[in-house]
């Protein structure tokens, strides 16, 4: 109810005025009380967010604890085949005293490190170059076409990438890159198919590049023109100006983009489950180029793969243990990103 | 009556050659243009005692001949011809839109970073047309300081050493090794001294440049421009964003620098031009209206428009 | 202009030319001449061009590939037929149920995320007391934004399997709560959309100039009224923007669907009242349908998978167009988009990334 403030009326201090909404009037107490109620309600909402996060941590860790406690630190180690271990759990005894918890997650952890690490490294290089291209070098017509395209790419669901990967890219890789001879060479250990590390890294890179390009390009556009002009006036050519001034200025954005991309790569479950191979195999760099064609299955993809067997208690605890590892990794990642940006604040680079 | 403006006076420098009595030594280094008023060697009247006059045989660094500049369809500078000499400060004055900043920016080809800019006429640096010099080496020889101080988000040392790290040897080959701090320190210190900033920052060269005050930042930009030992220094209203004390410091600096570097300064502030410039060019709506020694322009202008502008009839 | 010739005219009395002599004009183009650059710089420059063009080509390839496959496999009948009940999807049936599933799930997710997100954004920008709480909440929202959807799905599973929350889903005969239903999945989906709504709304609220609020207070309005009647209406486009981004994220997610929705082909109700039955029942969405029909799932019907993927892409495209329109109108209403307009629009969901 909005009264005309110019009409003389009864004293209208805040405590006497009626609340303006119907619900407020129902609850009574005057406008000031309504104010307080609103603030408390919204503050409760904010606290609710923190409660949810705390809840996630508590729930995941409590469900994960049995798996960690039975395996100790060896949980992170290597030893044996992950799929065999899962089989043992699924087929094992059903009484709580005799649950089989034996698990060695190293092949999965190594797969996660490989796929996410390689994808982020390639992705960062490509994104920085592409962002420089988009902001500085591209002609206006190309720019107008790039913007909606990148936006579209960033929104493509991961299943679609997985579909293209498994139906188009993987067969092509298998057909053209993996010779029979190569297959025979590791036949006794693992079967090489098109679903392997190289395809996984390739598609993962394609998935994370658009958002990184957007972040870095946005930051590059914000570099004050006075700096780039000043550098040009000092006789520094365009590329060197970009390298020494612009890219240096946007280092915080590059860090942020890398953190975001890594988080996305770590959590990518569906596309990798489709594309990366059906075995939790640990690729061996000593295999030379065959290394790139060996199947992998990172943590998140493994969770999705075994989620049907969640009713088996040891499996459930193991999967939650993997989720806990993901949780901690993402938290550490954010922390690392924040820490990486601190030294940059000193020289006036806006973080 | 406003108080009289005093020119900034330095100690008489014995190395400057005084003008010959008859002005005949002028032709040695200046290009004659048909019908142009004799620029050099004109006897300077009204010069205050103790001041050294720019010499006739003073080396001409740049020669601007019949320059036209356009942005898009519009010609903003029309048929301007001026000399830029070492040992003196050339002031460009005029109202807004007179094209003086555009002219200044064309001297180091900074107008080229705007698409659609066009240039006609001839500008030479030490006899060589600047369009033929590689643009980055040109800009190292003709440095510029902007209106707003724009130090990079790095330390003071890195700012001044910025251009020095780009030294090229032969065409296309950069120095293989990144020069060490010790190698660059003498040049940095020298540039800071010439810019009058060294005493204030001596112990603290790693201080972030953006934390300096406005006047210090502008002096840092001057030091940065001087680090590569340019032949000409272009100043685009360097003091317009600064307080009077910083302004005075920088004006002192400018007058002190002119022995080693030819200076061209664009200024809105007539008193500043009076204090600092030796020769003054008045531009109006893109044309060069009058050029001459500063004493003549301010005390005894030949053109009506100059007289009006200088007396404040328009601005 | 005075008629007197300038001081340096070639000869007195000459009429000044209005343009320079023909042939002496040198125009500049934006193209750099890199011939004189050092080798390393030239390589870097060309590399940038290569990567840039390569990116465009790859983007075009993806779009065209999906277009091709989609057009060849998508029939209008697919959109309105229910999936066949059999495992073999290749022969018959459409994907109406997955489409319904997508829409339903999105509606639930947004219905939860939108009010909560706006409320949260309002608190973060207008109240922010106490300060330590505000900082924590900001980090918290950022953490949720960065959490993998697998993690959220697992959390949801553990949470909703508790007997206390059994009303949200079905309880199986053995007494264990199934925990998977549209309601539970929708709740977790709302967590996906929440940060996007919060970020978009908050950024817009922060850009509303102080004098707008002050004017309202000066008229005697309370803070709550000001927010409700002045601020929120003015940031409506940004709220819509955030919601659209959230919808995009929900539509595209598969992990939560697979884990928390049961990922059945058809909507399987839980029994009871019709709407409630569906909400408490399981189902699938377009994303889980694509997964099911791909070689990684059991359906083994590539054509259906491509068709469904194509429909998904169309949805994403439409959502993008909506976002672009909304941002154009936001610019029109005077809310500044900031210096780096285009890319900020796109990363507008992530304002803490600056």
Any overview of this molecule?
- The complex is a heterotrimer of chains A (351), B (315) and C (354).
- With 351 residues, chain A is an all-alpha fold.
- Chain A contains 14 helices and no strands.
- In chain A, helix 4 crosses helix 11 and helix 5 crosses helix 8.
- Chain A starts with 21 loop residues before the first helix and ends in a 10-residue tail after the last helix.
- Chain B has 315 residues and is an alpha/beta fold.
- In chain B, the strands form 2 sheets. In chain B, strands 6-7-8-3-9-10 form a 6-stranded mixed beta sheet, with helices on both faces. Chain B has a 4-stranded antiparallel beta sheet with strand order 2-1-4-5, covered by helices on one side.
- In chain B, helix 4 crosses helix 6.
- The longest helix of chain B is centred in the middle third of the chain and has 14 residues.
- The two termini of chain B are 19 Å apart.
- Chain C has 354 residues and is mainly alpha-helical.
- Helices cover 63% and strands 1% of the residues of chain C.
- In chain C, helix 3 packs across helix 12 and helix 7 crosses helix 8.
- The longest helix of chain C has 35 residues.
- At the A-C interface, helix 2, helix 4, helix 5, helix 6 and helix 8 of A face helix 1, helix 3, helix 4, helix 5 and helix 8 of C.
- Strand 4 of chain B pairs antiparallel with strand 1 of chain C, so a sheet runs across the interface.
Keywords:
heterotrimer, A: 351 residues, mainly alpha, flat, B: 315 residues, alpha/beta, 4-stranded antiparallel β-sheet, 22% strand, globular
């Amino acid at each position: 109810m909005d009264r005309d403030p110019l009409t003389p009326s009864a004293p209208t201090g805040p405590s006497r005025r009626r609340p303006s909404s119907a619900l407020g009037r129902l609850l009574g107490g005057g406008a000031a009380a309504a104010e307080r109620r609103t603030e408390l309600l919204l503050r409760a909402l904010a606290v609710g967010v923190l409660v949810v996060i705390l809840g996630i941590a508590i729930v995941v860790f409590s469900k994960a604890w049995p798996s960690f406690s039975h395996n100790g630190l060896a949980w992170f180690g290597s030893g044996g085949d992950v799929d065999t271990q899962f089989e043992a759990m699924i087929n094992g005894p059903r009484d709580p005293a005799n649950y089989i918890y034996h698990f060695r997650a190293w092949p999965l952890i190594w797969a996660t490190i490989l796929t996410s690490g390689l994808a982020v490294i390639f992705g960062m290089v490509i994104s920085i170059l592409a962002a420089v291209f988009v902001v500085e070098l591209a002609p206006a017509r190309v720019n107008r076409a790039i913007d909606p395209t990148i936006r579209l790419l960033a929104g493509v669901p991961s299943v679609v990438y997985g579909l293209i990967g498994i139906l188009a890219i993987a067969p092509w890789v298998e057909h053209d890159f993996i010779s029979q001879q190569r297959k025979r060479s590791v036949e006794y250990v693992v079967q090489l198919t098109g679903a392997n590390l190289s395809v996984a890294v390739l598609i993962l890179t394609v998935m994370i590049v658009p958002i990184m390009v957007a972040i870095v390009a946005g930051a590059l556009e914000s570099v004050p023109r006075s700096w780039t002009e000043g550098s040009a006036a000092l006789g520094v050519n365009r590329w060197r100006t970009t390298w020494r001034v612009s890219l240096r200025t946007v280092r915080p954005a590059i860090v942020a983009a890398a953190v975001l991309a890594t988080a996305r790569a770590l959590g990518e479950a569906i596309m990798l489950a489709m594309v990366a191979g059906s075995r939790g195999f640990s690729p061996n760099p000593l295999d030379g180029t065959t290394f790139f064609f060996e199947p992998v299955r990172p943590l998140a993809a493994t969770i999705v793969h075994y989620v049907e067997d969640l009713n088996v208690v040891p499996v459930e605890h193991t999967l939650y243990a993997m989720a806990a590892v993901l949780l901690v990794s993402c938290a550490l990642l954010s922390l690392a990103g924040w820490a990486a940006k601190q030294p940059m604040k000193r020289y006036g680079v806006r973080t | 009556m406003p108080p009289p403006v005093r020119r900034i006076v330095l100690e008489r420098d014995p190395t400057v050659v005084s003008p010959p009595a008859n002005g005949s030594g002028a032709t040695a280094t200046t290009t004659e243009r048909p019908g142009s008023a004799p620029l050099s060697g004109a006897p300077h009247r009204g010069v205050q005692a103790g001041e050294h006059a720019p010499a006739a045989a003073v080396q001409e660094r740049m020669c601007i001949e019949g320059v036209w500049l356009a942005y898009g369809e519009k010609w903003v500078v029309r048929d301007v011809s001026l000399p830029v000499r070492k040992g003196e400060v050339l002031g460009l004055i005029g109202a807004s839109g007179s094209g003086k900043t555009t002219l200044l920016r064309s001297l180091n080809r900074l107008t080229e970073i705007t698409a659609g800019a066009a240039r006609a006429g001839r500008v030479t640096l030490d006899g060589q047309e600047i369009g033929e010099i590689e643009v980055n080496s040109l800009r190292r020889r003709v440095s510029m300081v902007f209106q707003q101080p724009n130090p990079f988000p790095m330390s003071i040392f890195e700012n001044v050493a910025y251009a020095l790290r780009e030294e090229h040897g032969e065409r296309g080959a950069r120095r293989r090794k990144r020069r060490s701090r010790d190698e660059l320190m003498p040049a940095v210190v020298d540039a800071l001294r010439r810019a009058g900033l060294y005493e204030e920052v001596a112990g603290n060269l790693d201080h972030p440049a953006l934390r300096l005050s406005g006047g210090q930042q502008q002096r840092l930009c001057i030091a940065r421009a001087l680090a590569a030992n340019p032949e000409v220094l272009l100043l685009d209203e360097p003091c317009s964003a600064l307080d009077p004390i910083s302004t005075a410091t920088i004006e002192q600096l400018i007058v002190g620098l002119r022995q080693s570097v030819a200076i061209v300064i664009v200024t809105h502030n007539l008193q500043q031009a009076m204090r600092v410039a030796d020769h003054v060019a008045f531009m109006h709506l893109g044309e060069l209206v009058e050029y001459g020694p500063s004493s003549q322009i301010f005390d005894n202008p030949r053109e009506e428009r100059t007289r009006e502008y200088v007396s404040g009839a328009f601005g | 202009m005075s008629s007197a010739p300038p001081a340096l005219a070639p000869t007195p009395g000459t009429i000044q030319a209005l343009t320079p002599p023909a042939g002496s004009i040198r125009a500049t183009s934006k193209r750099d001449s890199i011939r004189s650059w050092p080798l390393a710089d030239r390589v870097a420059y060309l590399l940038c061009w290569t990567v840039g063009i390569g990116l465009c080509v790859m983007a075009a390839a993806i779009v065209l590939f999906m277009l091709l496959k989609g057009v060849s496999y998508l029939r209008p009948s697919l959109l309105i037929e229910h999936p066949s009940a059999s495992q073999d999807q290749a022969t018959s049936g459409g994907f109406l149920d997955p489409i319904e599933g997508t829409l339903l799930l999105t509606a639930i997710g947004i219905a939860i995320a939108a009010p909560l997100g706006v409320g949260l954004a309002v608190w973060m920008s207008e109240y922010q007391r106490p300060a330590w709480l505000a900082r924590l909440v900001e980090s918290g929202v950022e953490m949720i934004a960065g959490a993998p959807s697998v993690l959220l799905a697992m959390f949801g599973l553990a949470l909703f399997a508790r007997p206390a929350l059994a009303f949200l889903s079905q309880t199986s005969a053995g007494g264990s709560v199934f925990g998977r239903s549209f309601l539970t999945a929708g709740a977790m989906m709302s967590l996906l959309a929440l940060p996007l709504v919060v970020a978009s709304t908050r950024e817009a609220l922060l850009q509303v100039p102080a004098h707008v609020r002050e004017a309202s207070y000066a008229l005697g309005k309370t803070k709550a009224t000001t927010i409700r009647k002045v601020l929120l209406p003015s940031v409506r486009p940004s709220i819509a923007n955030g919601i659209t981004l959230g919808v995009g994220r929900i539509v595209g997610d598969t992990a939560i669907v697979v884990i928390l929705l049961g990922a059945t082909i058809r909507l399987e109700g839980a029994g009871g009242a019709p709407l409630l039955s569906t909400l408490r029942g399981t189902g699938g969405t377009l994303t889980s349908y694509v997964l099911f029909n791909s070689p990684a799932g059991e359906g083994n019907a590539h054509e259906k998978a491509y068709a469904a993927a194509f429909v998904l892409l169309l949805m994403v495209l439409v959502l993008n167009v909506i976002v672009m329109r909304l941002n154009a109108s936001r610019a029109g209403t005077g809310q500044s988009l900031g210096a780096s307009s285009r890319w900020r629009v796109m990363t507008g969901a992530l304002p803490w990334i600056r």
